[in-house]
Structure formats: C-alpha cells, structure tokens
Amino acid sequence: MVSNAPLHLKPRKQPRQARAAATLDAIFEATIQVLLVDGPRRLTTTRVAERAGVSVGTMYQYFPHKQALFYALNERYLDALAGKVEDACRARHGDPIDRMVEALVTTYWNAKTERPNVTRALYRSVAELDNEALIEAFARRADAATAAMFATASDAAFEDLATVNLTLLTTIFGVVRSVFERNLPIAEADAVLRQLVMMCVAYLKAARVSASGRRRGSAQLAAAST
C-alpha cells in the first residue's frame, strides 16, 4: 500500500531478496508477539530483535526506532485488509445490494476478528503515531472498491453514490472499531454484526433512486463514457 509516510517513520530500506523478506516477516511477527505480552509502551526494538532471532544491527537496518516499526506493521496490516475488501467487492459486481453489503461487512469483520488480540494491539500501537497517511491510503482503496461495486448493483442506483458510499463505510468502520474498543463478548459482537448488516441494507434501500432515476443515471453514465 502506497502511503506518504512522515520521513521519520519510513523504514531505512526495503527487502529486495527472499531471505530479507523472510527476515522482515519474522520481525513483524515478533513485534506482534511482544506487543501482546508487553504492550506498546514497554516494547523495545531490542526485545523484538531477540524474539525474531535477529541482531539489533539487522533490526536497525530497517527500523531506526519502534515508532517506525509500528508504522510499518500497521501499513502491512492495512494493505492486506484493503486487498481483502477489494477482492470481496470485485466478486459481488452485479449482485443486489443486500448481498453486496453482507459480503462487505462480513469480509471486513472476519479480517478484524481473525486474530482479535492482534487487532486490539495494533489499535493501541498507533495511539501516539501520525498515521494519517496510512488511513488515507487505506480509505482511497476501500472507497474505490466499494463505489465500483455499488455502481453495478442489480437493484439500485444512487444519485450521489460518493456520499452514500462514504456514509456507509464510515458507519461500518466505526461500529467494528467500537466493538473492539468495548471488548464485547463473542455473542454480543455477533449480534451487533447482524444488526449492522441489516442497518446498512436498510440505509442503501432508503438512499437508492427510483426506476426512472436509475434510467437517468444510466443515460448520464453512458453519455459521460462516450
């Protein structure tokens, strides 16, 4: 994921060979493990290097301090998350909106809950970081993927798709984050998930235009493409 990271948070170098990439994978996994045990405040690059089985010098070749390490870890996480959202949206082009919403919410939810303790640790790790560029890069990809999907809905069209899409994503992301921050039990979290899908589908149905509006929108789209 391409983000305009602040200069002091950029890694010193990028892996160019398989062995270097494997070393970086080990560093990231070790960072997660130390985060889970010690939390972001007590984590040190020395502890991570020991856990990863690399020298402090090797660690320093990539990350000058733990803030840069946290930034890179979250960038990798958001890149993978954006990829999952994009794949799910492409697979639902042409579907009715209820199936689109279910796929979008479920994909985002499953990605966040695959390793829920890791998700919580990552939320904590960026508390003191300037992560605006990361969020912006992720949002651009999510906005583009979901808008492209909803533009193909078989049972709906939207006069202001950009605003509808932004409202929907803001709702989904906000609700899921709240579930993690409140550390809800599994049963309650699953209930919220079902309600979230219902709420999003109802919103899209309320926001869609009439059949005549869909025809006008199709005509405008065709005219714009010629």
Which superfamily, in CATH terms, is the homologous superfamily? Tetracycline Repressor, domain 2
Query: Could you name the CATH class?
Result: Mainly Alpha
- List the helices and strands in order: HHHHHHHHHH
Mean pLDDT: 88
Structurally, the number of domains stands at 1
Please state the structural category. mainly alpha
And the CATH topology? Answer: Tetracycline Repressor, domain 2
End-to-end separation in angstroms reads 32 Å
Approximate shape: elongated
Main sheet properties: none
Residues in helices, as a percent range: over 70%
Please compute the radius of gyration using only Cα atoms: 20 Å
In the CATH hierarchy, the architecture is Orthogonal Bundle
What does this structure look like?
With 226 residues, the protein is mainly α. The protein has one domain: Tetracycline Repressor, domain 2, CATH 1.10.357. Helix content is 76%, strand content 0%. The chain is built from 10 helices and no strands. The protein has helices spanning 18-42, 45-52, 56-62, 66-91, 97-113, 116-125, 132-150, 161-182, 186-207, 211-225. Helix 8 runs antiparallel to helix 9 (186-207). It is elongated and about 65 Å long. The two termini are 32 Å apart.
